[in-house]
Every structure is written in structure tokens, then in C-alpha cells.
Amino acid sequence: MLSPFCRVSILSLDAGGILSLSTLIVLSRIENEIRKEIGSNDVKLIDCFDMICGTSAGGLISLMLLREVGLQEIMELVPNILEKAFEGSRNIISGILFEGYDINNVKDLFMKHIGSNFMASYKNIYCFVTATDVKHNPYKLFLLRNYTHKYNAINGESYEGINKVPLWLAAWATASAPTYLKGPSAQDIKKLGFNIKPEIHLVDGALKASNPSLIALEECARLNNKNLSSFIKEDLDTLVSIGTGKSPTKLTQSDFSGKSASTFEILINSTHLLSRANDTHRELLQWLSDRENTYFRFNVPNIGDINIDSQDVRDFDLIAKATRDYLFDEKYYEIKRLAHKLANNYIRSKYL
């Protein structure tokens, strides 16, 4: 349970594939500004938050932050992971018929770089990553957490999920965008020795929550046994949400309820389920309209047309330049204001 004596700070990371390079540049800038404020390079960004969450590539970053991997190392690892995950050729036909890129290669990468420890073994911060359960109709949001709930949600949805899951499996689930990577099916999960009832088949969380910010608020409210409005009013200190300038893949949902949904069936079964990142942003603005200096959203323009599996160095350069220009031209003072607030919170938590 979150401390009743301290207000809660949340970091939320959108989906986006290779566009998550932008996310990492934003995170690095925030961390550097916090270190300047405090006067120490030993402080990690993660030390300033109570909960982190992410979807797809944002989920991979969240899981590495949970392991307390430094941002500089993550900035080196993520492009490497994505480059190797997206090795080989893929087009929409091969993606639909043959599940996209080689999943065995991806699983090995996640085991090596994300790790095999269970999420629940990390207690330093609350963390979840999103997935979509396509085993049932309608498809539903499924959370892979490092914590459990004592309470049901008050006037809201109690999202299903598990916490007895290794990091690499959580990474596989959250990052399995249909036509790119096959997600862990009920059979895959059984083969790994997990007996989950009712059975689940997990794919990319972006089908339901490409921007998991609102889910994070709902999760924190549930942990505190409060409704969402009361939690925001009484317990929320800071919500930092980082986008990737990209809307999720468009998909559609039928009455299919067979043993294991194929990529083709998932594709023809999901449009009305999709939660666009900017829709969530607008909803958050409504919830937090009377809370000044609480909600910080960073979402770089002019990078949304880059393919999430691009391996073109020119695209990497474009993402980096667009992000740095955005941070200095549009968000310079907002970054400073956020860093000042998080640094003060950190100092209070450590020394008061």
C-alpha cells in the first residue's frame, strides 16, 4: 500500500517501438536536471517516483528501470534489443501469416537483457506493464505487476493481472504487437510451467492502453482503497507521461472465441478497443484541470510517421534531433519546473 503520509508521483511511458528513443532522451534530460538541482550524480530518476508503468517499448524501459538499470545503459540496450528483435524481413502478409519476426530470437534477447527474476522480487517501487488478453471476447486489458491488490476498485474497473511472472515474460507480453511479434499464448504459458486460470493469450498492451497514464491513476487509487477522484484530490503529487508521437496500429473484433487467436484473427477483431494516446491525454486534462503543477506530458511532434521497427540510422537521427529541439524550444521551462519539484520531493523524503 502506498504511504498515507506522502503524496504519490507516477511515471508513465507510452508504446512506440523505435520511437521510444525519444522517451529515453526525455528521461535522460529530466534525470540530468534533477541531479543539477540536488547537486549529486548518484541520484537516479527512479528514486523520485513511487510507481512506473509502460506499454510495449515503454514497458521494456519500465522493467529495466524496475531492475535499477541506469538510463545510460538503457539508452545503449534498447536500440540494440529492438535492432536484433527486428532482424530479417517482414511485410504485412508475412506478419499476418507467419507472426512477423522470429519470436525465439526475441525471447532470448529478453532473457539476456531484461532478466529472469520475477517482477515481485523487486520491492523498491510499484511497477506494471500492460498487455491485452485476446483469449476472451471482448478482449481486455491485462496487467503484469510487481505487487498485489488487497482491495477491489471503488466505482471503477478492477483490472486483471498477475505478479508471479519473470521479467522477460512480462517484456514479451507487453511488446508483442500483432504482425510484428507473436504474443505468449495459453499453450506457451503452460509450457513455461505457469498454471494461470482462466487461461490467457497476451499481446501488446497498446491495443487497450497505448498511453497507460490513466490506468496508473486507477491502480494507485485502488492500492489506497479510494475512488479515483478522491485519490487525485488527496494523494496525487505528480504524474509524468511521456509519449512517442505515434498512434497504435488500427485493428477490428468479432465473435471469435477459439482456442488461440492467430495474428489474422486479432487483426480482424479489435478497432473499437483501441485507446489512443492523445485521447487518454485529453481525459487526464479533464481529471486534473484544477490541479496546477501536477500533470506533465511530453510528446514530441513530427516523429509519428516513422515505422516502429525502422532500422534506418537517418530515422534515429531524426528522432534524436526532433526530441532535443522540442525539449529546448518548447519544454525548456517545464522540464526545469518538473525537475525542481521532483528534486524537492526527493530531498524531503530523504532528509526530513
UniProtKB/TrEMBL annotation:
SUPFAM superfamilies found in the cross-reference section: FabD/lysophospholipase-like
Q: Which GO terms describe its biological process?
A: fatty acid metabolic process; lipid catabolic process
Q: Annotated motif GXSXG: location in the chain?
A: 54-58
The record's annotation in InterPro entries points to: Acyl_Trfase/lysoPLipase, PNPLA_dom
Q: Which positions does the motif DGA/G occupy? A: 204-206
One cellular component (GO) term of this entry: membrane
Q: Which GO terms describe its molecular function?
A: phospholipase activity
Extent of the signal sequence: none
Q: Which UniProt keywords apply?
A: Hydrolase, Lipid degradation, Lipid metabolism
Which residues are annotated as active site? S56 (nucleophile), D204 (proton acceptor)
Q: Which residue windows are transmembrane per the record?
A: none
What are the residue boundaries of the PNPLA domain, all occurrences included? 11-217
This chain belongs to which protein, by name?
Answer: Phospholipase A2
State the organism named in the record. Plasmodium malariae
